[in-house]
TrEMBL record:
Pfam families: HSP20. It comes from Streptomyces chumphonensis. InterPro entries: A-crystallin/Hsp20_dom, HSP20-like_chaperone, Small_HSP. SUPFAM superfamilies: HSP20-like chaperones (SSF49764). Residues 24-136 form the SHSP domain. Belongs to the small heat shock protein (HSP20) family. This is Hsp20/alpha crystallin family protein. It comes from the Bacteria.
Amino acid sequence: MLMRTDPFRELDRLTQQFLGTAGTWSRPSVVPMDAYREGDAYVIALDLPGVSAEAIDIDVERNMLTVKAERRPAVNGDDVQMELSERTFGVFSRQVVLADTLDTDRIKADYDAGVLTVRIPIAERAKPRKITIGEGSGRKQISG
């Protein structure tokens, strides 16, 4: 048998049981993430441990990227008596506002070892470019 030593966790568990929210998120969950620029793309890495790739949904509408994922309990059944439950499960969601300079038509996502990596290329029109100066006949004077 495992022993619980944190009295506040026990209070949370009892509150969840009393309110009928046990087994689900009773408060908003934050999906930890890193965001950085790598070459000509922005990269967003989100921690989603214990979530299967099939349970992840990524949408982009206008300039809003939404990631939703669901982690289900690892054990279920009539013959299972939970002794200790500290791992959270339920629906996780994270929204990120994307700049207009990103190419949302070419977003790519990979999922490996519990980390969802979303790569968003910078739009061609937003990349820095060199402007060449044409040769002219020199200065013109305007009389008027």
